[in-house]
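Lecture notes, unit on protein representations.

Consider one protein chain, 369 amino acids long.
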Amino acid sequence: MARKRVLLMVSLLTVVALALPGQDASGVAESLRARGYTVENPRTDAGRPTWDLRHEERIPFTLSMVGPLTEARALALQSIRETVFSLEGLDIRRTRIVFDQDRATAVVAPRSYRINGREYSGYMPSGMQFMYDESLAFDFRMLADNLALRVNGQYLTEEQFRERIVRAIDNPAAYIESSDPQFLARRLEEQQSLLDGARATDIIQNQAIARLEDEIARSLQLGEEALNREVRRAEQAERAVRRDFQRDLAEEAETLRKETQLALAELSARHEALRADHEALLQAQGQLLAEFEALREGAIALAGRKLFGALRELDPGAVARVVELRRAEPGLEADDARDRVNDELPDGVDPLHSRHVQAIYALYFNDYR
């Protein structure tokens, strides 16, 4: 009877094992080989099947993964490998890639990493960490001047990645400050002060132009009156004196006319110079406004970052709608505004996050609740 129970249990376990989806470790290894990987040293590490791999770059790395090699996992593995292993100036000591569901995490220990001739691996005691979850991101710490610098964000280009590292080491204190939302708020306040100053200067310039135009009009009137007086004097002299005196008087009138024209030309040149300065000021004001709006939009987008620094899509129309609602209803709470705007968004547009709306309230209405 006991033997029959044992046989029955074995049969049931066999049926259950055959019904489970996915691949075993050997099946994963075969899938990796089919995709061009060299697979060596199969083992188990921390409960995960683990292999030593190489691909066309011939750079060895370790892969740990539970479950089958799905298309999503294969894409994540390929993206990390092609991006990280092709970084210019990077000499890798070892790389470990671990999958948690379809999310891949790669820890890279550099032997050397030179950017523009300078060695940076010494600033990376724990190496570099990359993550792939629909897109590639990075998040690791660097040490410089006794400061721990968090270098993180969405990986867009190699130039952007290298620039982030160089900027952090060149000026660690400024890098930490630039990553602080309060620093961005101060920058916005500075830009607002510059705009206010530009507007005040514009008013002064307009007043100066108006005064100059009045001065030109008065000068024209005075010149015309003086010329008329001289003409009348010449006419009177023509009847009273000889022809030579008449000629001398005409020459004097012509000289006065030329002097008046020169004075008018000088005033006109000054007027044009002031107009040119005014146009340059308007252009600078427009640039300041554009920079102000870009900083404000950047601060809103930065406030709504995901867990590992990836930016959420931000619809400008949604931002404008929040501002419109808040102006119409000053007492409207941020969460209520978020819900109302998200309900109005068309299909396919990413909804606003609560941090987006909080940033809009702070930057547009100085409301930090």
